[in-house]
Amino acid sequence: MGGGSSAFAIAEWDGSGYPATKPRLEDIPENCIALVLARLDPTEICKLAGLNQAFRGASSADFIWEVKLPLNYGYIVDQLGDEKVGCLGKKDLYARLCRPNPFDCGTKEIWLDKSTGGVCVSIASKALRITGIDDRRYWNRIPTEESRFKNVAYLHQIWWFEVVGEMEFQFPVGTYSAFFRLHLGRPNKRLGRRVCNLDHIHGWNVKPVQFQLTTSDGQHAVSRLFLDNPGQWVHYHAGDFVVEQPNEPTKIKFSLSQIDCTHTKGGLCLDSVLICPSFLGKGLDYIHR
Length: 289
Hints:
- The chain has 289 residues and is α+β, with helices and mostly antiparallel strands.
- It contains 8 helices and 16 strands.
- The strands form 3 sheets. Strands 1, 2, 3, 5, 6, 8, 13, 15 and 16 form a 9-stranded mixed sheet that branches.
- The termini are far apart.
- The protein is 17% helix and 35% strand.
């Protein structure tokens, strides 16, 4: 009964009452494998693709990767300005978007979290408005391999400290967090080893820095934090915002400032601003209010 329902269920029998051949993993129809893979996360799919040729073929099915991509992946591809990216199959497109992809003249990068497909964006210090950045008495641009943009803004000393950035982007529905990536001290390399000059760090323990985040739909967040942990890159939490309309761009404005002119402050590296899904932000080395 039911013996003809599947070729996979049929086995030849020898005279001893035992099957002469046993069903093997590679005997599973490729379309059945694809249906199973569609229920897994991207990293699990890639691991199972190495089992055999059937799994490898099934793992490339467009319908599997279509649902792993963010709903706004077409918008993301448009931001990259590369027509070839839009012609990729869905699996290859997912892999491409999981790499850092520069856009906006290289001042921003976007990528997907490999496991979840969450959209992450990083904005370089060059894309931010920094008070006094053109005066070398206060600021310098210094090269470093410790930044994804290979360059950071280094503050020698200043009375009035303010950094402001804006971005308009179409994020998928969800809750997002914004972080400033900062470093007290000037990192460098000497004889192949990392060293950090902490001599010019001053003023950050007198009063906290104020972080602010606002969105075009009226969301607002404020954090006040003392900068600490000299010699380490730290993500300082500026605030969270919620995206409810998947097909509408959200305009975000973010800033950090310390405008008490009773003392100077200096010895700070400003790398970038990170915007990512809040559940991914929890895995960062970050400080929040």
